[in-house]
Amino acid sequence: MKHTIMLFSLLLSGLLASCNEEVEVQNNPDHLEPGYGLLSLTMDLTKTGTKADEAVAEEIALPAEKEIKDVAFFVHTEADEQGDGSFGKYFSGETESSENKLNEELTAIPDVEGQYKVSIIHCSDGWKNPEVVVIANYKENDLEDELKAVSNWEELQAFTTSATQAENAKTPLLMCAQQTIKSWESTPVVSGGGSVVETIKMKRMVSRIDVRNYAYNPTETEKNFVLTAARLVRPRIAVPLVEGSKTLPVSSSSTFPFGGTVEEFEVEAVTFQKVDCIYTYENENKEEATATAIQLEGTLGGVPITKIVDFKKLNVAQTPIALARNRRYLININPAPDKTDVNFDIEVADWSEGEEIRVKPSFPKAEMKIADVSALTDAGMIWDATKKVIDITSATGTASFTFTTTGNTATQPEVKLLYDKTGTSVGWNTEELKAAAVSFTPSIADEKAEVVTTYTVTVPYQQSLKVPVDIILNIHNANNKGVGDTIIIRSVPGYTTTGIKPVLMSDGRYWAPVNVGAIKLPENVPEMGDITETCGQLFQWGRKAGFNLIGDKGSLQKESSAKPGKDDIATMETKNTWAGKFLSVGANPWFSVSDGDTWYE
Description:
About 5% of the residues lie in helices and about 35% in strands. It has helices spanning about 145-150, 155, 375-380, 430-435, 530-535, 565-570, and strands at about 5-10, 35-45, 50, 55-60, 70-80, 85-90, 105-110, 115-125, 130-135, 175-180, 195-200, 205, 205-215, 225-235, 260-265, 270-280, 295-300, 305-310, 330-335, 340-350, 355-360, 365-370, 380-385, 390, 400-405, 410-420, 440-445, 450-460, 470-475, 480-490, 505, 510. It has a six-stranded mixed sheet, with no helix packed on it. It has a five-stranded antiparallel sheet with strand order 7-8-2-1-11, with no helix packed on it. The protein has a five-stranded antiparallel sheet with strand order 6-5-9-10-12, with no helix packed on it.
């Protein structure tokens, strides 16, 4: 149902006499001298209510949104064969002697909410193309001085409210209507004016945005979305009185720190959240840089989150939805099938009706920025910005660095260790130590539509125990581990005293580049003698200690080759009952040796 102003009696008598003659409206209010018109106006803003959604029936227009405290009239006629046209303006609260006073002051009709009556008397010799502009609540919206300064019809058509809006619009709301009154027009045989009845549609000059949070469910912690704020992003801060596509200013700030109050409401004993009456001026939303949107802030499963709701149709072209005066936009926040998202439905209406638009924003990958790596460099670490790898192989001490992630939700770290999975070599061998080394704090930026999460990481180093290790810092969306970025803290020390790096095999494990006991790569092997430095030591299965490899390289596979002697046995490990002894199997065992006199089979 559209809100209208009913002109139940536009009683205008436009006769041939001049407007300069004296008006006599003393005993008969319908008596007019020639050239004058009496406009009696009933302003009707009543409404019976409608459904805001399928579940909740409620009165859409609040009493304060139907309130009218003052009115201004502008009347314009053009010249015809009878005489010149005229421009007149009439305001509430003028003195009795003012030529701009109303004939009958604005009065509320008793016992009928939203209905008012008022009348003016206008004078014109010509009545071609008569037009009327009616403006309600102009004083409460700080337009009195500007409107009274308007001196002609062209100025009124170009009139734009001052670009000074810095907070949510307040009731009573600014309203306006313009219409050509065809019944007043003069013809070659009939004088202009006369007694007419017209209807003028009065429009509130703001769009109204409401929010319903149906994802509010405190009993289910992981899926509970708690709405804490709804704010305008890039709102228009001025509006023309007369509708049309004019270039208008937007807020110089990316967001306005205002919106409605978050309240709870119930549907069949189930509690939800709502925000009512965020007001903004019309915006065609054709340009992304100036398109108005809504920023919703809250927590999803306890994690800070911010969402931007753009006014676009869910089609291939992502057609913008224009914000129009006197229309209501209802944003429904609905629970998603899992805890990683919430969905939005947007209903567009003129405070009561309209099409339904569906929008589902997504979680973009958080952007990671490391501002300063000087502390890493000072500690002997190397930062590879392309691969996001911190090499601690040659580190001489710990170092701390900070970075931030930005996105529409907070991020969280997940720490994993590869190779040295216990974390012993870097002192991260408990969950408490990991948490202490990686701290983070999310916050919502006031001037940007994003959540900024600040991280401080204390990067460890290996002191005595130098082994390969990869510490994986997966910085992911707090509600979706599949969306994120990764930093790797890596140590790849050289093998023993060789300085030779271990080899990362295709199975994802590091392998030694040489055999145990070798100190250099086997570029060549001596014909005879000790070849341990390139080929490594020999070991018996189950024994931790080995012995040097001495023998003929051409006969190493023979049982006579490389057998340990008595001295070798004496230096073997002495921790068990097999001390000083080698095990052997068979009549001609490999490494079947004695401890001097006795053979051990």
